[in-house]
Write a structure and sequence with these properties.
With 312 residues, the chain is of the alpha/beta class. It has helices at 27-41, 65-75, 103-106, 215-233, 239-248, 254-262, 265-271, 273-276, 283-289, and strands at 48-51, 89-93, 124-130, 143-145, 151-152, 173-176, 181-183, 189-190, 198-201, 210-213. Helix 4 crosses helix 5 (239-248) and helix 5 (239-248) crosses helix 9 (283-289).
Length: 312
Amino acid sequence: TPVLRHRLESVKFLSPLPRRDDDLANYGAITQAAVALAEERQPNRRRTICSATTNLHRRGDRPTRWSAAIDGIAAGVDAATGEEPPRRLFVQAIGNIGHDNDWSVIEDATQHPGEDPAQAWNALTIGGVTFKNTIGPRDQGSWHPCAQVGDLSPYSRTSCDWPDSTTPVKPELIFEAGNRASSALKDQVSDAMPSLSLVSTGKGGAGDALVPFHATSAATAQAARMAAQISSEHPEFWPETVRALMVHSARWTNPMKEEVDGAGGKTGRSALRRKFGYGQPDLPRALASASDDLALFSQAYIQPYDRPGISR
């Protein structure tokens, strides 16, 4: 019988109705308050922080108050004087490509930059891949999958047009985010088609118990789950270690490798990092890296220092 070794808790940090306090300039402080609320109620609980919210009106090629706040949360800068900084793993979605019935407008993910606050250096930013290309019998013939198995999910943004020298490579990892479908005449695009989506619990009440779940929200939730699984298996691991094991276990899919072969030169191949990150992680591989596979890591502090009398 499977044993559930981690739990889910949530904090609604943005009201469904607009309020003055929900101004974009306050999103960083609101996020900090949401994390503090959970930690105040259960201070001894180890947790992975998952955020699938992005600023639809601001691209992530420059630091903002929100991305800086997430960097501070992950780095534990809120520790009191003399206290050991808290360690946190913050998992953040890179953002979704919006709907358009003209598939050619949204087809090229490299033209849709990741959204604020996905640029946070200390966050583990998540994009989407898809392995779902089988459309349900009722819709076959009228609809066709937009992406093939192993391709980047049609919902997922990239950091391909961010300045390469001043911004981090995002996303770092990709998880299943579902697929879109286009009509036979290419004049309509369908989002959240059940056969091309994942499944999650509904909101309850009179609604369905299970509903389609897609886009980078779904991918980010899976990333947080994988982090929780590694943490429950190895409770002594720091969040930095969990993050490293996830990235170390990632691999590109065959279609992604084919793009590498077709890319022009080192510059073209290097640019694909900003599209696929380090690839899709694998939980068994990550856990093997923590036990009997060859993976060397050290949980230790690095203390920079100066040597008096040594000229630079």
